[in-house]
Specification:
Chain lengths: 249, 342
């Protein structure tokens, strides 16, 4: 079986600064892989290389077993992307926005169905500037789903959302997993990764410093801490690992 | 094809929902036409303002002058009148002696010189000397010769340029800043359709601009295009296409809105002033006229004026059409090479 994403030995420097170093990972069908990492760890840089926006210095990227160079338009029609810092045109209504994005694809999901999925049916004809942050975030996710993609990239989809709105996004992601969609997710929230992801990659200074299921990570790295407390244990792992790294620099 | 249609619709919505677009496309041209049109096109000549030195010899001719509504007469001492002259409140100081009429005025100032002629003619008439020729004046205010007629095509050209560069260009720069172009770039959207949607969407806006300028000009001042309306619109379309392509080039790389606005202002304002939007280029020194011949805006202004004022046909203006068209092609090609999506 070919992976949805297969990445081998990816590296990227900005001038002399190495943002991503020798990174390898893969994502299977119906799987959510979470990338955890502090600010500046290289998450967005990694995402943008996978999305065909940045050229890696070295390494190999295969999406659906295909390369950006050869099969650009096929890949674009099969993926959905939510970028970390985008604002869609704020004077379009939700419906107009989705119509526009839908028009780029041959195959598209009905807008009504999509809005039910992200729970925005009552906001269909509201301009984006009149939506709350969480509602807007759900429009961005809907736009990433308009072509019924097999693989989606979500770069910090819940940053800045209140706990309730975050749960809303989690529900959407869980439903997508059930439909067999592969998801690459980046986040700063441990519990989010723990709740959504089948596997977690912890990135720091451009390098993978740990990976596995949340259970494996907790067993391996939170040693010495209060292992009995289920709550926040992945957070212990995270602080343990990235804190150490910082101390070493 | 469906995508292009939706994108063009979106361009139209972007325009309609942008509050400043309303100002640029509708309000600004109307205000300019009304304001400048009335200032330079007052239906009657304003009376000449004359200061009469109170040390003047009493003369019945002065009665005549005061009774004539061609003149507005102010009395005062020489000193106070000189101040008024310096302030531009009066154009001329008159002091009469027994035999002589003394005029004080600035001969460089056409209005003052005309006041001088009018006053002396009036004095002579009042003095009862039979003029050899009875002067007969013909008032000229026929359509096509007034300042508004000159102004309206110029304003339309200016509106086309500013809506392209400020409207379309600014929108693209803001979309790049917001990473929206980057977001489009990770869809199968065809970059070429994106460019085309801007140019076609621009033509919809142009339809509004033309209507606003022509209809308000016609309603308020009875402005009419002397040549064929079709040719006039055809050249406006060419102009809009050319300047939209120019906007695509200008907005092809930056994501800094205020830098973009600064650059565009620095290009548009001198081009508009020297290109003769508001004033005829014949007032400028010759070297400047030669330089401004090459401004794209000048080409558009000149061809619109040629059609609107002199009734030029397409045949008369075809070389301009060729220039505008090649501008469009060159800029559009340049834009698609230079364009950065993020
Ligand atoms: N275009 C660029 N030019 C130079 N340096 C860059 C560029 N893009 C990113 N970097 C640097 O690369 C590093 C990784 O950035 P990246 O955006 O991938 O981090 P991130 O993990 O997404 O962080 P955050 O959690 O804040 O979103 C940072 O140190 C950043 O300064
Ligand atoms: Mg990031």
């Amino acid at each position: 079986m070919t992976y949805l994403i297969e990445v081998k030995n990816l590296s990227k420097s900005f001038r002399s600064f190495e943002a991503v170093k020798d990174l390898s990972l893969h994502v299977e069908q119906g799987e959510c892989l979470a990338i955890l990492g502090p600010n500046g760890a290289g998450k967005t840089t990694t995402f943008e290389m996978l999305e065909g926006l940045l050229k890696p210095d070295s390494g190999e990227i295969l999406l659906f077993g295909k390369t950006w160079d050869k099969d650009r338009s096929e890949i674009l029609s099969r993926i959905g992307v939510q970028l970390q810092e985008t604002s869609l045109y704020k004077r379009f209504t939700v419906r107009e926005t989705l119509e526009l994005f839908g028009s780029f694809y041959k195959q598209r999901k009905p807008i009504k169905e999509l809005l039910e999925l992200v729970d925005l049916s009552d906001k269909m004809d509201v301009e984006l500037r009149k939506l709350s942050g969480g509602q807007k975030q759900r429009v961005y996710i809907a736009a990433a789903l308009i072509n019924d993609p097999e693989l989606i990239f979500l770069d910090e989809p819940t940053t800045g959302l209140d706990p309730l709105a975050r749960r809303g996004v989690w529900n959407i992601i869980n439903n997508l997993k059930k439909e067999g969609v592969g998801i690459l997710l980046s986040t700063h929230h441990m519990e989010e990764a723990e709740y959504l992801a089948s596997r977690i990659v912890i990135l720091d200074s451009g390098k993978i410093i740990a990976q596995g299921t949340s259970k494996e990570l907790i067993e391996k790295f939170s040693g010495g801490e209060k292992v009995t407390v289920r709550h926040g244990t992945l957070e212990d792992v995270f602080l343990n690992l990235t804190g150490k790294e910082l101390a070493n620099v | 094809m469906y995508s292009l249609f939706v994108m063009i619709k979106c361009r139209w919505l972007e325009f309609r929902r942008e509050p400043s677009a309303f100002y640029y496309v509708i309000l600004f041209p109307i205000i300019s036409i009304v304001g400048l049109g009335f200032i330079f096109n007052s239906p009657q000549r304003k009376p000449f303002s004359i200061g009469v030195d109170s040390s003047s010899q009493f003369n019945s001719s002065l009665y005549e002058l005061r009774g004539n509504d061609q003149f507005k007469v102010i009395d005062g001492s020489q000193d106070s009148l000189e101040t008024e002259l310096k302030r531009g409140h009066i154009q001329l100081i008159l002091r009469l002696t027994d035999k002589e009429a003394h005029f004080v005025y600035d001969p460089q100032n056409n209005d003052a010189y005309m006041a001088r002629l009018a006053v002396s003619a009036n004095l002579e008439k009042a003095a009862g000397q039979n003029p050899k020729f009875l002067p007969v004046d013909t008032q000229v205010s026929a359509a096509g010769l007034r300042y508004v007629d000159f102004l309206i095509p110029g304003l339309l050209a200016f509106s086309i340029v500013s809506t392209s560069l400020f409207g379309t260009g600014q929108l693209i720069v803001a979309n790049r800043r917001d990473n929206l172009l980057k977001r489009y770039f990770v869809t199968p959207m065809k970059p070429l359709s994106y460019m085309v949607s801007h140019i076609v969407g621009r033509l919809l806006i142009l339809a509004m601009e033309i209507s606003v300028v022509l209809i308000s000009g016609w309603l308020i001042f009875g402005f009419k295009v002397q040549g064929s309306l079709f040719t006039f619109i055809f050249f406006s379309v060419l102009g809009a296409a050319a300047f939209t392509s120019l906007a695509l080039v200008a907005a092809s790389r930056t994501s800094n809105s205020s830098a973009y606005a600064g650059i565009v202002n620095a290009i548009v304002m001198p081009m508009a002033l020297m290109g003769g939007v508001w004033f005829s280029r014949s007032n400028f020194p010759e070297w400047l006229v030669h330089i401004s011949d090459y401004f794209p805006l000048t080409m558009l202004v000149d061809s619109l004026r040629l059609i609107a004022l002199e009734g030029a046909s397409f045949g008369d203006a075809w070389s301009m059409a060729g220039k505008l068209l090649s501008m469009t092609v060159i800029f559009a090609a340049g834009a698609s090479r230079l364009f950065k999506w993020y």
